[in-house]
Fold:
Amino acid sequence: MSLRYLFAVLLAVMLVSACSTLQDSWEGTKEMAQGVGEFVNPDPEVDFNAYEFENPNQEKLARLMTPVDGPLKSLIRYVSDRDSYPDEKWIDLLFLRYPWIHSLIVVNEEGWMLDRLPDAPLKRITEPLVYEANWRETFLQTVVDYPELGPELYIGTPFFKDADFAGLILVSVDPRTLLDFCPKPEELVMLQPGGAAWSMNRDRELAPLEALPWDEILEDDVLGTVDADGQCYTWLVRYVGSDPYVYATPCSDAEARDSGWLPF
Structure:
């Protein structure tokens, strides 16, 4: 066998071995790339039952209260973010974003009114609006007034000057206006524990619901069902600052009580 022939055979063997190695490496690379691709770009799988309600009463309450609670929380965020005297731009944006509010009042640290919009609001304050808080620690507080034309919820937040407490910014809204955002407002009740309940259903008897010992109920629970003179209600509490307000609706199934959960 000539040296030239031996060299050609060895070269062929080396090429075959190299091709085999490259093939194995390529297959391994493809498998790795496929695995990485599935990790980075997984096939989406949507579980439509992930937030399915087990309790029809709680599903009903969630559908009724969410369109009401959303605008209220948005207003709360906007008002509580202001810690200086409101300027014209802030005021204009307030009434533009929330055309359903009734009034804006600015008072100094002694309670004297510095500014008010509109100048002559439809509802007059019947009782002094008393806000008692450590304003270094409290950023929002509410007071409900009950004039003849209906309840008025006043949301108050402090403003400061040179790091010193200078007064309060008060924004007011009729709670029944908020209920207008509900798809079935006659089915939803909003209640101030220790105060009154509000509903767009004039035929609904609210006194039994108002009379329940809400202070005791809220010590242990944030949601549940209650009996008000034979009527079952499903309820959930929301806090505006440190003040509780309760959303409630008549149970659609009196047998389905306290099962399932509300995803809020």
